[in-house]
Amino acid sequence: MANRPKPTRPPPLVPKPGQVKVVQAMFRYEAQQADELTFDEGDLLYIIDMTNSDWWKAKCGKKVGLIPSNYVSENTESIDHPLHEAAKRGNMDFLMECIGNRVSVNGLDKAGSIPLHWAAHGGHIECLKALLNVANCQVDVKNKLGDTPLHSAAWKNHSAAVEILLNVGANPNIRNNDDKLPSELAKDPETAALLREAAGNRSLRYEEGYVDEEDSD
Questions:
Q1: pTM higher than 0.70
Q2: Residue 72's domain spans which residues?
Q3: Are the C-beta atoms of 97 and 44 separated by less than 8 Å?
């Protein structure tokens, strides 16, 4: 029986809970034992358990198995913010694969944006719906510019994305770092009117005594 190779370099830190490390294989790896994972060059690997410092559990497609941690360090390329990339490009297959492998829908990229920002920015409606379908998806996250996904959709005049976000409760009265409401970023008159109406209706509900659950005792 073949001996498993030992890592020659120390493994990286274990990701924080809720995060999934995603890498792309640069070379083929052939499983040496029944519980190991075989994969080809270019395959995406989702690292789902790094408890054992020598052997990590990974998923590739529908297969799950062990891979040597030193292989990940030396023979793969890390994919930062894979769900953001999928949302940005409107790549539904990759997006659904990421969601299926529990990549966080609320993870922040370098701009402080969540994947929903990029789906809204690109007007990628199917991606937007898929992200919103995830139970814990947050809709009013502000990035480093203070923009929410609603700001992103409004700025790009994606009226369909604006309507979807409003329908799931996105707040049209949030101002960004430039003190702008989503309605003030929309260049399309119909989109701006839709946002102003939603903002007015929300304000009216507050005046009539309605409050968010988080503000009530």
A1: yes
A2: 21-78
A3: yes
